[in-house]
Amino acid sequence: MEITLEAIISFIGLFVGGGGGAFFTWRYMRRKAKAEAVQAETEAKEKEQDYYQQLLEDYKAHHEELRDEREHYKNERNELREDMKKMEGEVQSMKRLWVDKEVEMDRKIAQLGRKVEAMRPFLCGDLKCKKRQLVTMSAQGESEDKLKGEN
Fold first, then answer.
1. In a domain? residue 3
2. Concatenated DSSP letters for 89-136?
3. 151 located within any domain
4. What DSSP character marks residue 55?
């Protein structure tokens, strides 16, 4: 097969006139698709960066929230400790006051016991008796001599 000049010219004419347009269109579409792919990839990276930035901001906000909450609980704990110390001090002072009153009461009971012992010679089982004989008193306050006489 011989290629003539006429065949070459007709081939070039066909290529430039009809088939050549398809080649250039195909090339244009390929470049356009490549540019759209690059643009889509860039947008995806920007969205990914925005997502990570939002995660970082959320983390910082949550961290700050936790820090504030921890500070609140520390303050509350310190207030409770102060209240507890104050109450312990009040309990200690109440104990000292109670011990002091108990000691005072014991002292007064001992004093009253000595007074009763001092009055013993003046006790008599017979209320009309003027001799005042020594008698023994029971725990209920009655004279044992009187109890013996009733039996």
1. no
2. HHHHHHHHHHHHHHHHHHHHHHHHHHHHHHHGGG--S-TT-SS-----
3. no
4. H
Q: Is the dihedral of CA 122, 123, 125, 127 positive or negative?
A: positive
Q: Give pLDDT tens digits for 29-85.
A: 888 889 999 999 999 999 999 999 999 999 999 999 999 999 999 999 999 999 999
Amino acid identity of 105?
Answer: M
CA distance 49 to 43: 10
The answer to whether residue 79 is domain-embedded is yes
- Whether 145 maps to a domain, the answer reads no
pTM (2 decimals)?
A: 0.43
Identify the domain containing residue 58 by its residue range: 48-122
Domain count, the chain: 1
